[in-house]
Amino acid sequence: MKKFKWLFILLAMMLCMTAFAACGAPDTPSDEGNTPPVIETPDTPENPDDPNEPVDPDTPVYEVEAPGEGPASASDITSVGGVPLVTLNNGVQMPRFGLGTQIQELESGDLGILNQTARESVTAALQAGYRHLDSAHGYMNERGVGQGIVDSGVPREEIWLTSKLWPSEYGNAYEAIDDMLERFQTDYLDLVYLHHPAGSISDIESAWRDLERAYREGKIRALGISNFDNRMEAFNAIMDEEIKPQIMQIECHPFAQRTEARELAEQYDIQVECWYPLGHADQRLLNSDTLEAIASAHGKSVVQVIIRWHIQEGFSVIPGSTNPDHIRENIAIFDFELTADEMALIRGMDEGESGRFFNINYDGFMGNYFVNNPPREWNGDFPD
What we know:
The protein is built from 13 helices and ten strands. By secondary structure, the protein is α/β, with parallel strands linked by helices.
């Protein structure tokens, strides 16, 4: 009887040891065929820098889809005239220098004259080597820009063409994109922005999702936000969407170098593009003794020095002009380089937020104005 009792105790001890082995200590490998089931933990994704270390759940992970295989897949963007290209966070390449096509002094007048002027400016720019054009529905010149492309003879697929949706269109953005394509006489756009963070957050989110849809269909190659640093609630809403922006457009020039906005863009791997690069033609800037001395040292103009500074800071920059001589002057900046000391002198001109010209509250009157006042339309004929 005692023999059976000891046999029973020995058998129980063996079963307990087997059970502990099946639970497995980390340093004890299991026998093949007896490996316990692996419990997957999707809430702690693998860290690509160290596969053994889980990713901090508060660290944003961005997986940006490539644009859809629609008409945009035929694009052939290359560097012309020394203009550098930037590879955006979706793998698409964009020229970092271009023409801003807004003509504010004509916007309240005859839209036929406005569009004809835009047409001539675009043709002159493309013939001078520009391959990046920045327009917007709010500029009311998309027909003129599109006709200028046709007139130039430059193949559409060699041109980076940008436009922007106006806040009054956010409720039906997908249809507005098709209208935009018709005005430009094209079947795709390289970049479309939400022009202003105006209106309800739900309308802004809806418009972004329509952009995402058009992006997946190949109607758009890249998505952007403009002026969203002025309304962080809207910025954060876009960052929560499935596809993150490739470009963030902001006012930026030597008097307003926008350190915080640039850091925000860098955090999300978003390229910064600058409008008002000449400080809205501020005479304090254009007649700066510092900039005049630097320009003289290089045999260049102050305007060329300012644009060159933007390029060396890593920005994309889109100075505007309707004067063919100025258009050619603005692109002639890739045959010289500012020294480190000269770059430091220009950085020292920063006046912070007080140096800005455009700094509005989108929750106030101007936000409502953008939503409730759609751009005027022009459907006339161009002169021969």
